[in-house]
């Protein structure tokens, strides 16, 4: 039975016909993995924490960057340079101390997906890459985990719920798309309110799923914030679904430095290391190179004359570099840092 304080806190949702005391118990016992802590994931995490969902695993490899702040409302200015997983977990603990929150600074890959979602009731996909989405779809199918998919770009968004071990899955709807063929938020732009609406719908759907009555199972909700319109579309089984056909996922995991985006006088670079050196060790090594600083438990930053490079516990170095440095030189700097970081 709930304590009077607990009851008081959630009283405005307990009175809802669909929730009640029994529903609130389900939320309290519920556990979710939120994968991707950008615009969608930060909205989902805050909303579910406030609603009293008991256990939350927060997964992202990235660090908070200044252009995130216009739409990722979970972060504040002082979080810039810190791992998103850690900054988001701190904020969630401030919103609701009863939530057991678990930050995981990791990439989703075929190797770790099972570990990330194996023990939760529900998976909420808030990533911005098809590669990650397909990996999540497949592991959810294998482990029989329900999946709430979301995406948003410019003024438009999608939400759908799948039980991908059944007839219909994400790859029935969007088969074999490649990240290279689609613009990112950095290129196409995104309306902050669009990700907030889409994230709010994902979290409403998560609550409904936990309560036992999802609305968007095998249904695509198309959100149009340009015309303030919502459309629903039934999703049918796709006879040539690559997942059903057991087609292997293409895994373009490169260990080369990659330029992610170049805009407004800044280049963003990413390099994934083959090993995942400990953040403390990287700090020790980078201190010898210059102006290194810890950014919480999960990240360390080094400042160079024309750029800032951050190593996160996911085993990645992210660089934000002035465009006066040409791409080749920037890649050389990040490669050198990677070599230093993984020295034994
Ligand atoms: Zn399918």
TrEMBL record:
A Gene Ontology term for the protein's cellular component: cytoplasm
GO molecular function, one term: nucleotidyltransferase activity
InterPro entries: ThiF/MoeB/HesA, ThiF_NAD_FAD-bd, Ubiquitin-activating_enz
SUPFAM superfamilies associated with the record: Activating enzymes of the ubiquitin-like proteins
Source organism, top-level taxon: Archaea
Domain spans labelled THIF-type NAD/FAD binding fold: 10-242
Coiled-coil features, chain-numbered ranges: none
Stored Gene3D superfamilies: NAD(P)-binding Rossmann-like Domain
Family: Belongs to the HesA/MoeB/ThiF family.
Protein's recorded name: THIF-type NAD/FAD binding fold domain-containing protein
Originating organism: Candidatus Marsarchaeota G2 archaeon BE_D
